[in-house]
Design a protein that fits this description.
Elements (H helix, E strand, L loop, with lengths): L5 H10 L5 E5 L4 E5 L7 H8 L3 H9 L3 H5 L5 H14 L34 H5 L14
Antiparallel strand pairs: 1-2
């Protein structure tokens, strides 16, 4: 069985330079910080997956959330913020960051038949007009 040391992978990832996102809002401007997308807690993805942007933001900004809300945030503000984060990280849509990088290479030829049986086409039967219903049989009196 292959062994994966997540602690080692985390340490290697921590050595990569990833700046947090700095957000400015308000008049006078106030600054807030959101971790880089690769450092988001998994709960953020869960909340975004069910469309709960409020809880996703609460997790992202932590204790800053209550202060951030004093700036009369709108859904449009949150959508614009998320779009800006996705654009700055090269991700077109939420969730895409976890997707694989392209398709797997084609390593085989055409698929082989899985059965030596055959199936009779029913296309001709479906394309024929339906028969008119027969009149009811007369009942003996």
């Amino acid at each position: 069985m292959a062994h994966i040391d997540l602690n080692q992978l985390r340490a290697a990832r921590a050595e990569q330079a990833r700046e947090p996102y700095t957000i400015t809002i308000g008049d006078p401007p106030e600054e807030f910080t959101i971790p880089h997308q690769r450092d988001w807690p998994v709960e953020v993805s869960e909340f975004l997956g069910v469309g709960n942007m409020r809880m996703a933001m609460r997790v992202l900004v932590g204790v800053q959330w209550e202060q951030m809300k004093t700036h009369s945030l709108t859904i449009g503000d949150i959508e614009d913020l998320m779009e800006a984060i996705m654009n700055s990280s090269g991700v077109a849509e939420l969730g895409e960051s976890l997707a694989s990088n392209g398709s797997s290479p084609n390593t085989s030829g055409p698929s082989k038949a899985t059965s030596n049986g055959s199936t009779v086409s029913t296309s001709a039967r479906r394309s024929r007009p339906a028969k008119a219903a027969s009149p009811p049989a007369a009942s003996p009196t």
